[in-house]
Design a protein that fits this description.
alpha+beta, BirA Bifunctional Protein, domain 2, Rossmann fold, 10-stranded mixed sheet, 6-stranded mixed sheet
């Protein structure tokens, strides 16, 4: 039991991280201006629709502002990630963006990381970098905490802005120079314990992607400039993807074109073109495009060795800490959802990540009876804890319907003369409509 503001709250889960729920917004007051056409430079479906729907705005190449609708989606994805990482023991922190040169020199990455660091000097001439990742920082932090095996294992994560000095930014949110990433870091006494937690993260990632509306394929991958003994990428099938995935439609074998066989996950046969033979069963392979939506690494002692991260074992002997790191780009995941869920009219958000659950449209609002009923429905929905955007603008029904399809909120509610005191309900991904009364809707 917990008393807050004179009220007794039975469960702390009342304050779930999904603080965006139970929210109503009048569209006439919303910072929103949709457009019929996307700029010519917009390439991918997600790039075009996010711009047209006023979810994001570009400041310069690879640098984006998230507007109210876009930020709500972004935060809902963040909260899904938080909930699943908390379940496996992750603890959230926030680490500095500005990082001193010396820690990157100690790890050997000041000159070698690809893409190269954004580097700058402060007023004292001291060299700093804008963090593209936080292995060095988290390792030094862990040194202040870890003394013996009793302090292990543990896992820390953050959802924070990163900077990548990309040569070419493209695809809207798919490849940027400034972005928000979830990076989780784990610390272990030995490889066996690291392997165990690594599998937990792999399973948590699958749940995260499912909650976002799709399944992802886990493939063995090159560890690149992050390093480590083993890593896996998570890819989602999409025509705009930059990676090619080889898949056997008959058995569970799959890999990226340049890598070894990967973790076996169910494969889908839709939309595949055939290329080559499966090394396992000899059947013709299929190739499809994919977007990377996550990457996890068994770092081992790559950072604990140069930065001297050790612990005392049960015998009092000094040992190197085994580490893992696990990343998801939130904006890229948001764009990927649109690449998977859209039609010619606009976005089709899965309900878990949609900016609002309901989009309430009122027509014929010059009629006081209709207007009053629409206001009542809106107020009841919000009071009932529903997430609703209320289109109360003084524009034509056609404009309201087109904007609703473009924005892609999963449940459309219409009130007009034709609904005769009821509410017309239509799901964004369906053609059929039904009439219901307010009580049944609630």
């Amino acid at each position: 039991m917990l008393a807050i503001g004179g009220q007794v709250v039975k469960k702390f889960s009342f304050f779930k991280l999904n603080f965006l729920n139970n929210f109503g917004m009048r569209q006439s007051k919303l910072f929103l201006k949709t457009s019929k056409e996307a700029p010519k430079e917009a390439e991918t479906i997600s790039h075009k629709l996010l711009l047209r729907g006023f979810f994001i705005d570009q400041l310069t190449s690879g640098v984006w502002s998230f507007l109210p609708l876009g930020w709500r989606v972004h935060k809902k994805i963040e909260n899904i990630i938080r909930e699943e990482l908390n379940k496996i023991g992750g603890q959230e922190i926030s680490l500095p963006v500005l990082q001193p040169k010396n820690i990157w020199q100690e790890s050997g990455r000041w000159e070698t990381i690809d893409p190269p660091l954004f580097k700058l000097k402060d007023r004292h001439g001291k060299e700093l970098a804008l963090g593209p990742t936080h292995e060095e920082v988290i390792t030094l932090l862990a040194k202040k905490f870890i003394q013996s095996y009793k302090d292990l294992p543990f896992a820390l994560y953050q959802i924070q802005t990163k900077f990548r000095n990309e040569m070419r930014s493209s695809g809207g949110l798919l490849r940027t120079r400034e972005f928000v990433m979830k990076d989780l870091y784990s610390f272990h006494t030995d490889k066996k314990d690291l392997d165990k937690f690594y599998q937990k993260v792999l399973n948590a990632y699958e749940i995260i992607y499912e909650r976002c509306g799709f399944s992802a394929i886990a493939l063995e991958a090159d560890s690149g400039s992050i390093g480590g003994s083993e890593s896996h990428e998570f890819l989602v099938n999409a025509d705009s993807g930059e990676d090619k995935i080889l898949i056997c439609p008959m058995c569970a074998w799959k890999s990226k074109e340049e890598t070894a066989p990967a973790v076996a996950l169910p494969c889908r046969q839709a939309g595949l073109t055939r290329e080559g033979k499966c090394p396992e069963c000899g059947k013709e392979l299929a190739v499809r495009k994919g977007i990377e939506v996550g990457h996890i690494f068994k770092l081992g002692t790559k950072y604990s060795q140069p930065l001297d991260l050790t612990y005392l074992d049960k015998n009092g002997k000094k040992q190197l800490v085994e580490m893992g790191c696990y990343g998801i780009g939130v904006g890229r995941l948001m764009a990927t959802i649109i690449e998977v869920y859209h039609d010619e009219a606009g976005i089709i958000w899965p309900e878990n990540v949609a900016p609002f659950k309901y989009h309430l449209l009122v027509f014929d609002q010059d009629d006081k009876k209709i207007k009053d009923f629409a206001e009542k429905v809106y107020e009841k929905l919000v009071k009932n804890g529903q997430d609703v955007l209320y289109d109360d603008r003084d524009v034509s029904p056609g404009i309201k319907l087109k904007d609703a399809d473009l924005i892609g909120i999963p449940n459309r509610l219409v009130i007009s003369h034709k609904t005769s005191g009821k509410i017309e309900v239509k799901k964004r991904n369906e053609q059929k409509t039904t009439l219901t009364n307010l009580q049944d809707l609630l």
